[in-house]
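Quiz preparation item.
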């Protein structure tokens, strides 16, 4: 099953980091957010990726084009340009980098990948957030209900500490808990190819007409995820993710740390 990652947006709310690179290339622990997301899927056995590029597509292309050489020792024969790698492991991934337009909206980017996803169900997510969602269980849930689309529903993290009061006494305190109610779109979709027929064109937002219509027709189901989920929308989010990675307790990490 292929994994589609939308990685072409401007990331305007993170302009301090995205002036020269797309949002999914903002680094956490010395690695792009895009790499962290791919590691999570790979840990669950999904290793073929279709990355929808847009803004500063050349940055993503350059990263993967030189991926073998950045973190490993190698020899190069300057006479003919041949190289030989020395030691080190590389991820066994197949990565398709597809330019989907500079101003294309999320639905339009997905629609432009029709020939790349083919006729089989596929996974899809955004290139700006991480989670510890069990992708295997997500796929199993999708197959069991037999509808066209599954979205992972999450509870967004609160910006403030939570207090449980008993009179004037604080009975319980939790720093930045998940919000107790209100499910939102956390990405991490499983989709049947027919959902592409719900997308009119480049200007279509996936999160508007297509998802609204799928829901109205009873073709959208929600996989509830109560665990970790964190978007990377602001510098505050970047610092939080950095601190989690530095602590060695990043919930999304899996085997990624061993390769970092």
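Solution:
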């Amino acid at each position: 099953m292929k994994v589609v990652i939308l990685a072409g947006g401007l990331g305007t709310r993170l302009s301090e980091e995205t002036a020269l690179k797309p949002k999914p290339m903002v680094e956490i622990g010395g690695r792009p957010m895009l790499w962290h997301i791919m590691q999570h899927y790979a840990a669950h056995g999904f290793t073929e990726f279709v990355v929808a590029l847009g803004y500063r597509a050349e940055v993503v292309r350059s990263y993967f084009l030189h991926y073998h050489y950045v973190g490993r020792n190698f020899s190069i024969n300057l006479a003919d340009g041949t190289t030989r790698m020395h030691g080190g492991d590389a991820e066994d991934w197949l990565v398709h980098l597809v330019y989907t337009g500079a101003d294309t909206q999320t639905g339009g980017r997905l629609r432009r990948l029709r020939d790349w996803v083919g006729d089989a169900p596929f996974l899809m997510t955004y290139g700006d957030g991480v989670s510890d969602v069990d992708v295997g269980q997500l796929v199993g849930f999708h197959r069991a209900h037999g509808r066209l689309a599954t979205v992972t529903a999450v509870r967004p993290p609160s910006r403030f500490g939570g207090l449980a009061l008993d009179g004037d006494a604080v009975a319980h305190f939790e720093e930045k808990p998940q919000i107790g109610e209100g499910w939102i779109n956390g990405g991490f979709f499983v989709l049947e190819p027919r959902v592409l027929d719900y997308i009119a064109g480049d200007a279509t937002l996936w999160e508007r007409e297509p998802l609204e219509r799928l829901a109205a027709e009873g073709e959208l189901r929600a996989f509830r995820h109560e665990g970790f989920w964190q978007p990377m929308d602001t510098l505050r989010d970047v610092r939080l993710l950095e601190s989690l990675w530095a602590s060695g307790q990043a919930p999304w990490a899996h085997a990624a740390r061993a390769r970092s």
